[in-house]
Design brief:
Elements (H helix, E strand, L loop, with lengths): L6 E4 L2 E5 L10 E4 L2 H9 L6 H18 L5 H16 L6 H16 L5 H31 L7 E4 L14 H10 L5 E5 L6 H13 L3 E4 L4 H6 L5 E4 L3 E2 L5 E4 L2 H10 L4 E4 L23 H4 E2 L2 E2 L12 E4 L6 E4 L2 E3 L3 H7 L2
Parallel strand pairs: 4-5, 4-7, 5-6, 7-10, 10-14
Antiparallel strand pairs: 1-2, 2-3, 8-9, 9-13, 11-12, 14-15
Helix pairs in contact: 1-2, 2-3, 2-4, 2-5, 3-4, 4-5, 5-6
Bound molecules: 5-S-methyl-1-O-phosphono-5-thio-D-ribulose.
């Protein structure tokens, strides 16, 4: 099994695989300041809910390093600004706010200590967040593998692999586990317009691992499902509400409607860090809208006329009644989701 190091922190520098460049070139993006981290998240050098959470945690560490020379009052005030900036770098994936809140708690609890000690504690917490995510993904993969049939053909959307997490992946982690446990699986990967996380990143991970797979444009999914070619749909999540409504990459909702119509099991694979216990339904999820250029350009080539309006939401919400189950590190949750989500809180 290949080990992909999406996020690595060494000697006060955060190294990220530059996901804007894959698969054409494998480049590392270096963050030396928390502003670099804010840019990396906004510009999608790094993306995927758990990956941006862990990245933001190291952003807080870089901020602490920068402000070490300040007195305590200034240090704490500057840290608050850095936490705020990072917290807003993208709005939908709750793992980001979750990680920032964990880092903020460390600062709150160690306020009385010298700033050097606060820095050390923040660094330790970021390392824990990173390592816990990998462990969590491996647990989810084991639970998820139980619902993958011996010869399953699986459809997946966006990129939910090692690149979207600290390592191993969520939905793609389940696929990895099924493959390495000896199952004869086959994967269809949606290319996932407009940022092509499927065509560029999932396809890259599948090829690296040698998992039998085929890339499709998003609109092919309906035909494959109607023709009985798909046994299972596995997707990730950016935020799950208490009732099970799930925000994920734009296009996920459409797949869920097809799954319901054609009776295909539709599973969300998400760590509990992706559950927002503060919201009741998907209506409360802030859906990011991104630059129109993501739609009107491919790379640097304009493909749509000047003057056309664009609607470019990055995520949509799948209603809980379309979801067969939510695979977490604590087990597979089935409806009624609210009751079962509250049980694992
Ligand atoms: O815009 P992105 O690439 O950050 O969106 C990512 C997704 O929608 C993933 O499916 C989600 O974060 C789960 S990945 C572990």
């Amino acid at each position: 099994m290949k080990e992909i190091r999406t996020i690595e922190f060494k000697k006060d520098t955060l190294y990220l695989i530059d996901q804007r460049k894959l698969p054409i070139s494998y480049e590392i993006f270096e963050c030396k300041t928390y502003e670099d981290v804010d840019f990396a998240i906004k510009d999608m050098v790094v993306r995927g809910a758990p990956a941006i959470g862990a990245t933001a945690a190291y952003g807080v560490v870089l901020a602490a390093k920068e402000f070490l020379k300040e007195n305590k009052g200034k240090f704490l005030a500057n840290m608050e600004e850095a936490l705020d900036l990072l917290n807003k770098s993208r709005p939908t994936a709750v793992n980001l706010m979750w990680a920032i809140s964990r880092m903020r708690n460390i600062i709150e609890r160690s306020k009385a200590l010298p700033v050097g000690n606060i820095y050390e504690k923040l660094k330790r917490e970021a390392d824990i967040i990173l390592n816990e995510d990998i462990e969590t993904n491996k647990k989810m993969a084991k639970h998820g593998n139980q619902i993958v049939g011996q010869n399953a053909t699986i459809l997946t959307h966006c990129n939910t692999g090692a690149l979207a997490t600290a390592g191993f992946g969520t939905a793609l982690g389940v696929i990895r586990e099924a493959f390495y446990s000896g199952k004869n699986i086959f994967v269809y990967a949606d290319e996932t317009r407009p940022r092509l996380q499927g065509g560029r990143l999932t396809a890259w991970e599948l090829v690296e691992e040698g998992i039998p797979s085929t890339l499709i444009v998003d609109s092919v999914a309906a035909t494959l499902i109607r023709d009985g070619k798909i046994d299972l749909i596995l997707v990730g999540a950016d935020r799950v509400a208490l009732n099970g409504d799930t925000a994920n990459k734009i296009g996920t909702f459409m797949l869920s409607v097809l799954a319901k119509e054609y009776n295909i099991p539709f599973y969300v694979v998400a760590p509990t860090t992706t559950i927002d216990f503060n919201i009741n339904t998907g209506k409360e999820i802030d859906i990011e809208e991104r630059d129109s250029k993501e739609v009107t350009y491919i790379e640097n080539i304009r493909i749509a006329p000047e003057g056309i309006d664009v609607y470019n939401p990055a995520f949509d919400v799948t209603p809980n009644e379309h979801i067969t189950g939510i695979i977490t590190e604590k087990g597979i949750l089935k409806p009624p989701f609210k009751e079962n989500i509250l049980k694992i809180k």
